[in-house]
């Protein structure tokens, strides 16, 4: 018989991805990061904790390593850049995304994860519940409600807390998410992405508390609110171009009618057009209205093709294995 001893089975170089990955984007969170890592290690003992440092100038990286987290860096400033990097680098069945400021309830993670597993959900949002004004200021509450209701009106019935930084995602969601934003407006992208692809989503109430003393928030109510509103408008243009350009077309058409109607009535009664500049302006408005309407129709076909491709990309990833096992039972 031939000597087969020289043939050995080499261990695979491919690492088995963790079932659950906890993702913590951080920027100068030395006051809270060790506490957050320990709390999530206790809540999800089998998960791998990843801390992505975004150019912190304090001891965030050192304290995260000492607490037992896997620490990596992203040099481009902004939460959106960090999330884009995390989603590209890490492979898991479920992803727990949470801020590193110790304001979210780590004990809610098992409940959120159980809901995602049992119902094969692609996104579960932590619905913030608090009675502490210092934790959730009136301006933030009002802005969140206004922006959330605006998205629900434009894109469909989504979750009730669009700007929550506490979420669980499936692999299908993460690997099909385009991640085009750079800052805190990325939460808006999460919601619209799920709504446009008709993904199954859910919510779990979680306790929300204020930052501990010494920890400073990076949020700016008015600046970030304007940026999020701009993101919603941009997403409307990109995802629902027919509606977006139809509104523009209506504005131009209405303005043209207001300007041109007196000129037309005067021409019908006298046979003259004494206000020629007004007549030309009204004509230009109506031409712009027609062009905007045509652009909306053309871009709507393009958006439909993009949506089909994104849906196929989403379907190329298998459903969570736990859900499949449950289905077989």
Explain how this protein is built.
This protein is an alpha/beta fold and 329 residues long. It has two domains: 20-234, Alpha-Beta Complex (Spore Coat Polysaccharide Biosynthesis Protein SpsA, Chain A), CATH 3.90.550.10; 240-316. It is 52% helix and 12% strand. It has helices at 33-43, 60-66, 79-89, 109-119, 138-155, 171-176, 186-196, 221-239, 241-270, 276-315, 321-328; strands at residues 20-26, 48-53, 70-73, 94-97, 123-129, 167-170, 201-207. The protein has a seven-stranded mixed sheet with strand order 3-2-1-4-6-5-7, sandwiched between helices. Strand 1 (20-26), helix 1 and strand 2 (48-53) form a beta-alpha-beta unit. Helix 8 packs across helix 9 (241-270). The protein is elongated and about 85 Å long. The two termini are 46 Å apart. Mean pLDDT is 85; it is low at 4-18.
In short:
Keywords: Membrane, Transferase, Transmembrane, Transmembrane helix. Residues 22-173 form the Glycosyltransferase 2-like domain. The chain has 329 residues and is α/β, with parallel strands linked by helices.
- Write down the overall mean pLDDT: 85
Per CATH, the superfamily of the largest domain is: Spore Coat Polysaccharide Biosynthesis Protein SpsA, Chain A
The tally of helices reads 11
Shape, per Cα inertia axes: elongated
Tell me the Rg in angstroms: 26 Å
Helix content: 40-55%
Main sheet, how many strands, which sense, barrel?
A: 7 strands, mixed
CATH class of the largest domain: Alpha Beta
Sketch the topology as an H/E string, one letter per element: EHEHEHEHEHEHHEHHHH
Overall CATH architecture of the largest domain: Alpha-Beta Complex
* Unreliable segments of 5+ consecutive residues: 4-18
Structural class by sheet pairing and helices: alpha/beta
How are the strands of the largest sheet arranged?
Answer: 3-2-1-4-6-5-7
InterPro entries: Glyco_trans_2-like (IPR001173), Glycosyltransferase_2 (IPR050256), Nucleotide-diphossugar_trans (IPR029044)
Protein name: Glycosyl transferase family 2
GO molecular function, one term: transferase activity
Transmembrane segments: 242-265, 285-304
């Amino acid at each position: 018989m031939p000597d087969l001893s020289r043939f050995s089975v080499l261990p695979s170089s491919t690492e088995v991805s963790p079932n659950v990955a906890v993702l913590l984007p951080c920027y100068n969170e030395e006051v809270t990061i060790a506490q957050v890592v320990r709390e999530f290690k206790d809540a999800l003992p089998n998960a791998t904790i990843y801390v992505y440092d975004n150019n912190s100038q304090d001891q965030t990286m050192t304290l995260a390593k000492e607490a037992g987290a896997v620490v990596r860096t992203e040099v481009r400033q902004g939460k959106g850049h960090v999330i884009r990097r995390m989603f590209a680098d890490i492979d898991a069945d479920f992803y727990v995304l949470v801020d590193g400021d110790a304001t979210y309830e780590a004990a809610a993670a098992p409940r959120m994860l159980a809901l995602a597993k049992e119902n094969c959900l692609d996104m579960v949002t932590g619905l913030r519940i608090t009675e502490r004004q210092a934790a959730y200021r009136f301006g933030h509450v009002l802005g969140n409600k206004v922006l959330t209701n605006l998205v629900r009106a434009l894109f469909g019935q989504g979750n009730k807390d669009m700007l929550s930084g506490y979420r669980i995602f499936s692999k299908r969601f993460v690997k099909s998410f385009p991640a085009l934003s750079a800052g805190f407006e990325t939460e808006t992208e999460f919601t619209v992405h799920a709504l446009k692809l008709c993904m199954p989503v859910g919510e779990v109430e979680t306790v929300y508390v204020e930052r501990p003393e010494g920890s400073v928030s990076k949020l700016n109510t008015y600046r970030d609110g304007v940026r999020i509103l701009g993101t919603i408008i941009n997403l409307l243009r990109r995802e629902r171009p027919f509606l977006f350009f139809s509104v523009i077309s209506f504005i131009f058409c209405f303005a043209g009618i207001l300007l041109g109607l007196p000129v037309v009535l005067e021409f019908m009664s006298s046979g003259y057009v004494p206000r020629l500049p007004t007549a030309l302006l009204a004509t230009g408005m109506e031409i712009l209205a027609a062009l905007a309407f045509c652009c909306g129709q053309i871009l709507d076909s393009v958006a439909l093709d993009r949506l089909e491709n994104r849906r196929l990309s989403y379907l190329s990833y298998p459903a969570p294995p736990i859900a499949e096992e449950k289905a077989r039972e």
